[in-house]
Amino acid sequence: MTPLLTVNNLTYCKKVRPWLGKKEIFRLAPVSFELKAGETMAIMGENGSGKSLLAKLLVGVERPSGGNILLNGEALSHSNKQQRFRAIRMIFQHSKESLNPALTLGSLLEEPLILNTDLDAPSRKKKIELTLTQVGMLPEHQYFYRHMLSEGQRQRVAVARALILNPQIIVADEPFAALDPSVRSQTVNLLMKLQRDLGLGFIFISHNLGIVRHISDRILVLADGNVVESGKTDVIFNWPKSEYTQRLIQAYQALITRDD
């Protein structure tokens, strides 16, 4: 069976010259992996490891220096942004900042439909109401503004924006970092239900190894732009091969012991 997503030797190199400082170079070494429909791959690593950069490469925000990305066996062209924009959608970390306070939720959700589909106004309205219902909100919420929503509702709207174009893959970059534990648990359960119902593939980036262990099928570990380890979640947690991965997991286990 053809994988939903295939990443072949994806590389990135960018030179950065800090203000009045010497030139710095960040490289993402060749990254390769496959993602099946209904599967979740977690990307682990410390700050600066290249996790968020990899997410931007997948959704087309950044252009890779080499390699390619295939969706259902067909190459995704960087120049065909609409194709990628519809197929791979992103959930951002700070849902509040990603929502325009001057627009109703209906307007926020309608914009990508206007730009990327041929749906007429009644069909767009129907799609918005359906998507809001999918994420556990009411159709009437389309008339709300950002300030009228709770923290959990704002995160659900962020999920709705990712779903509105019927994507096949969702990239979630630290989507739970700013949420309190109860809201975080509700959002995790929501995403897992949507994945079961819609057969979505998930790329999940997080520092929270408890959530990573709970929702992911496989893990890719990055350090300084290099893949240091990859494999099934249970194998990575129980038998980590690299010292780097061992250190990450030991820190997580120490945190659990301290909280207990």
From TrEMBL:
Gene Ontology process terms (BP): transmembrane transport
Domain ABC transporter: 5-249
Keywords: ATP-binding, Nucleotide-binding, Transport
Keyword Membrane carried by entry: no
Keyword Transport: yes
Annotated GO MF terms: ATP binding; ATP hydrolysis activity
PROSITE patterns linked: ABC_TRANSPORTER_2
InterPro entries, alphabetized: AAA+_ATPase, ABC_transp_ATP-bind, ABC_transporter-like_ATP-bd, P-loop_NTPase
Coiled coil start-end: none
Protein name: ATP-binding cassette domain-containing protein
Native organism taxonomy: Bacteria, Pseudomonadati, Pseudomonadota, Gammaproteobacteria, Alteromonadales
